[in-house]
């Protein structure tokens, strides 16, 4: 199967006076699984549609497999696309839906049969080839839509929120199937979603977008552990990262002070020289530790609510100055509202952000 890289160079896209993408640059390696992640309206679907050739660009270039396709027709770009809606022909069987594009393109019948058989086997559709869309579940219909793209043997596969119309269980099942598919094919895949779980589980790299700008482009591990700014930190992670306003102590940057609470920063790696300017401390709920009250780094907090989550519980607390935050804890721990906990915030798990710019310190 052909595999192609994708280069986006100084791309600008707008509608009327509205700028959607402005001077965007992005390189996707051949065989890479890249996820475009961000909230609605951030420009991720616009970027995907531009790669597909479904919308015009104002300036910049799009290269696929080393070829400038900025103004090429969609059919000439060597791409295949899976849409949010299944977009299946209702009167055609699964077999016809998957093979129709190849027939229109004049692909030999024996080649169509071979590709159809391979895709059907990979996606567990062999027993469903003679059914029509109304006879299929939502998950089966989306697998047909993916199969229709696979038989194209494209250089790049584009996915525009393909799982958003499915329930939680089906989304989880199809995530696994798409991941296996990529591992088996080694194809270049660009996948749009606003679902951070999809992004973290599927991607080789994630491009987190806001306001038409790529805020961070990195591996899922680095996006999660070392977000470059407060937006990325708040958007990625469930439950969301805790944020505590305060300032870095003047005594060499070894502590963060929030009201009467003091958090050790010994071991925190700063990006530049620490200052005593207002800052925001971030920590994920699963990184907050319950410790002994005589721990020199302990911070007291009062439990406000216990939210059972099955395997563990989400504990909602407040610091002495009234700052609210949450932590994950053992589901069997006998905690209730009003209890006082001694908590430790391991420095190696912390993130610090400038109060004004939101950039990581």
Query: In whole angstroms, how far apart are the ends?
Result: 44 Å
CATH architecture of the largest domain: 3-Layer(aba) Sandwich
- In what order do the strands lie side by side in the largest sheet? 6-7-8-3-9-10
Number of helices: 8
Largest β-sheet summary = 6 strands, mixed
Low-confidence stretches: none
Task: Provide structural commentary.
GO terms for molecular function: ABC-type transporter activity; ATP binding; ATP hydrolysis activity. It comes from Bradyrhizobium hipponense. The chain has 361 residues and is of the alpha+beta class. The protein has two domains: 6-235, Rossmann fold (3-Layer(aba) Sandwich); 242-354, Nucleic acid-binding proteins (OB fold (Dihydrolipoamide Acetyltransferase, E2P), Beta Barrel), CATH 2.40.50.140. The protein has eight helices and 20 strands. The strands form four sheets. It has a six-stranded mixed beta sheet, sandwiched between helices. A five-stranded antiparallel beta sheet has the order 13-12-11-14-20. It has a five-stranded antiparallel beta sheet with strand order 15-19-16-17-18, with no helix packed on it.
List the helices and strands and how they pair.
Elements (H helix, E strand, L loop, with lengths): L5 E10 L2 E11 L4 E5 L6 H9 L6 E6 L2 E2 L10 E4 L11 H11 L4 H14 L15 H13 L5 E5 L7 H18 L2 E6 L2 H7 L2 E6 L2 E6 L1 H6 L4 H6 L6 E7 L6 E4 L2 E4 L13 E6 L5 E2 L8 E10 L3 E7 L5 E7 L9 E5 L6 E4 L7
Parallel strand pairs: 3-8, 3-9, 6-7, 7-8
Antiparallel strand pairs: 1-2, 1-4, 4-5, 9-10, 11-12, 11-14, 12-13, 14-20, 15-19, 16-17, 16-19, 17-18
Helix pairs in contact: 2-3, 2-4, 3-4
């Amino acid at each position: 199967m052909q595999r192609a890289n994708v280069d986006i160079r100084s791309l600008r896209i707008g509608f009327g006076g509205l700028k959607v993408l402005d001077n965007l640059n992005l390189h996707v390696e051949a065989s890479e699984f890249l996820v475009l992640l961000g909230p609605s309206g951030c420009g991720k679907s616009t970027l995907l549609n531009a790669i597909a050739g479904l919308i015009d660009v104002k300036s910049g270039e799009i290269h696929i497999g080393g070829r400038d396709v900025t103004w090429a027709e969609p059919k000439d770009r060597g791409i295949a696309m899976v849409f949010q809606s299944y977009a299946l022909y209702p009167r055609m069987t699964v077999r016809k839906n998957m093979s129709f594009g190849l027939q229109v393109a004049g692909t030999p019948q024996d080649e169509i049969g071979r590709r159809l058989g391979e895709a059907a086997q990979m996606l567990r559709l062999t027993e469903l080839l003679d059914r029509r869309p109304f006879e299929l579940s939502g998950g089966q219909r989306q697998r047909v839509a993916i199969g229709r793209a696979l038989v194209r043997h494209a250089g790049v596969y584009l996915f525009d929120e393909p799982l958003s119309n499915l329930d939680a269980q089906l989304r989880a099942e199809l995530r696994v199937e798409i991941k296996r598919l990529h591992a088996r094919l080694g194809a270049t895949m660009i996948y749009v979603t606003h679902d951070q779980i999809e992004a973290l589980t599927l991607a080789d790299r994630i491009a987190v977008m806001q306001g038409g700008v790529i805020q961070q482009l990195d591996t899922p591990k680095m996006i999660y552990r070392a977000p470059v700014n407060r937006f990325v930190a708040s958007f990625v992670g469930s439950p969301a990262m805790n944020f505590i306003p305060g300032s870095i102590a003047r005594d060499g940057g070894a502590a963060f002070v929030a009201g009467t609470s003091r958090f050790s920063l010994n071991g925190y790696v700063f990006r530049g020289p620490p200052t005593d300017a207002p800052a925001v401390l971030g920590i994920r709920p699963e990184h907050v530790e319950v410790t002994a009250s005589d721990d020199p780094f302990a911070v007291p907090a009062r439990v406000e609510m216990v939210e059972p989550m099955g395997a563990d519980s989400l504990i909602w607390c407040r610091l002495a100055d009234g700052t609210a935050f949450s932590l994950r804890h053992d589901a069997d721990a006998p905690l209730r509202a009003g209890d006082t906990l001694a908590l430790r915030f391991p420095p190696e798990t912390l993130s610090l952000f400038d109060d004004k710019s939101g950039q990581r310190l």
